[in-house]
Amino acid sequence: MFDTSKVGHSFPPFTIEVERCKIHELALAIGDDNPIYHSREAAQAAGYADVPLFPTAPTMFTFWGNTKFVSNLVNLGVNPMAILHGEEEFEYLAPINPGDTLTGMTTLVDGKTRKGHAGSMDILKLETRYTNQHDQAVLVARTVVIVRG
Amino acid sequence: MTTNAQVPTKVYFEDVQVGDAIPRLIKSSVTHLQLVRYAGASGDFNPLHTDPKIGEMLGIGGIITHGMLIMGFVGQMLSDYVGPTALRKFDVRFKGMTHLDDVITCTGTITEKFEADGEARISGRVKAADQNGDVKLIGTFVAALPRRNAAQ
User: Fold this and answer.
1) ipTM of the assembly?
2) Degrees, nearest 5: CA angle B144-B74-B151
3) For chain A, which terminus, N or C, has the lower number of CB atoms within 10 Å?
4) Any CB–CB contact under 8 A between A60 and chain B?
5) Are B82 and B11 in contact (CB under 8 A)?
6) Of B38, B47, B90, which is closest to A55 when you measure between CB atoms?
7) Model-level pTM?
8) pLDDT, tens digit, for every residue of A109-149?
9) Residue A30 to residue B40, Cβ atoms within 8 A
């Protein structure tokens, strides 16, 4: 069971630079060969300012921007091996381009322990708000994590 | 305040009707190599997704796919349909685990057309399911589309 007194707690902020090569790598892993994700020239020819953000690219910001993400969860009393990903939500507030530097702040916005006949599970809701180098809010990522007891 | 850039035109607001199906995307079967690549790309190195021994130990039938890879497949479908910068919101709820060799098909339907923040927007439902019809995730999205008359 995790420490419910931590609801409302924010982890230390982290920064990450948006890189073309990481967007290329993510699209490649997903198997999306749309040239806009693999070449700036192709992206510009298609009308984009630069290589655009792949829709699920924010997941890279969470893990690569905050390499302590998993240990943050462990500090809440979560066993990473027992984690199931319940929900994910992205709200895209403003354009994000390669070269931007994002600052993310993750908050444990809700958490509860649910007891059932199969045992108990913890349900944690995390929200990460990102601003860019101009202090403009650009992205919100919300994650529901289920931890099997 | 909405400062999102206008999108290169994939589809016009006027051409979309509530109930329209989004062109489906059928992905190649999930491979172990793909999960290793996805772990590196995303930075999610949880061994549940890369080490078969862990999956056996936990009794979940070997390696399970990163849920975010399946959301990525749906993201590819939406990117093909409206373009990535058109998206304003994209959310999913994971319903089942995906294993190696599963073949995922992504589908979606337009549920609403509306105006918000000075933009013409659509919203829709999305789904990813495997070769047996087992649902892996369901979700929704909101996208801003250009108008025909504004394009001239």
Assistant:
1) 0.94
2) 25
3) N
4) yes
5) yes
6) B90
7) 0.94
8) 999 888 877 788 899 999 999 999 999 999 999 999 999 87
9) no
